Amino acid sequence: MAYETILYELKDGVAMLTLNRPHKLNSFNDQMGGEVNAALRDAARDAAVRCLVLTGAGRAFSAGEDLSSHAGEAELALGAALRGRYRPMILALRTMEKPVIAAINGVAAGAGFATALACDLKVMAAEASFVPAFDKVALVPDSGSTFHWLRQLGLSRALEVAFFGGRISAEQALAWGFVNKVVPAAEVLTAAQQMAATLAKGPTKAFGLVKRAMNAAFANDLAAQLDYEAYLQEIAGRSHDHHEGVAAFFEKREPKFRGE
């Protein structure tokens, strides 16, 4: 599929999805939202994709919603945009049964911040920042922001971020657990790609099941989660990669996983 607002490339099992509206700080309009969702659907279905990296072109990861695309509208249909564009995007990132890495190369604001947080692992440029931004335009944090903030920060800190907004530096994001690693800006994409290359060679079917388990743990009590883990383990135990891993262990060699 030909894209106009994103770049999509697959190499050695790693799909690279780049938000490509640098003149608008990679803010989302209808077209880019649709193209991102289409690319995520393709990546989820493509067996050749073992890991996905999401980043932005230019100096921003994403400035969130492109408010200029709504110029002239008497009243913004924000609920419709959230349901039609961001809901499927955030769910696709969270439920894709493959690792997803955000390479946060610059500012991630509003829904751009939320999109980064929906990824499994995050590598952030030292010069980058998160900007909640919702308080500046008198809106409610959306696109899964309240879900992720509350679980990562706790209630008091999540409300602080929501009420006061402000810039969250890469150093603070690391301290709060929003990101996994902070590196110089020139190294952020390389660091994310190295991480992705390692994951793409791993047991990606098992990684997908791990994501299922982690997502379920948000809602399950302990007894239900123990049962669900047992169910997923039965699936993993029947996989090619499990049998390959066991064989490699006894043969004292490196396993060759296929994500199957």
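That was protein one. Protein two is written in the same sequence-then-structure order:
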Amino acid sequence: MRAYELHIKPIFGDMKLDKIKPSLIASWQNNLLDKLSSSRVGIIRTIFYTILDDAFRDEYITKNPISLIRGPKKEEVRLKKPFSISEINKILDFITPKMKAYFAIGFYTGMRTGEIIALKWTDIDFDKKTIDISKAIRQGVESVLKTKSSMICQHYLGHKTY
């Protein structure tokens, strides 16, 4: 209901349903994309689609105008690199020796915290420079991995060994 109140009602609330045209919906959607993620706009659009579809089925309008406008494209997943290599090295220089390996594995592989905690020496192949990730620890309990891609993923150690 909040999405309706914030994003649909201010633009379309006082409009007669048969006056809502595809061009107006396209402009509204583009304005939303300027301030919200494409997935959030997709959710808001679904709410509006349902409202207009109910009006179509009840014969208040002859066509659902939102069905003529393409939904927003999914945003590309970007590789996030919060620290540069020099910043990572500076951080590692200030970490206690006992924690250095933990943080280095996280920085250089992108493994999740629970995956790192669940590692055993048998999961690491220093000859092939790979880490086999088959489990994670969450709230002290060993569990399956979070996603299917995690289940088949191998992170490369690169040129450094820890």
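The longest helix spans residues 38-57. Keep this in mind for the problem set.
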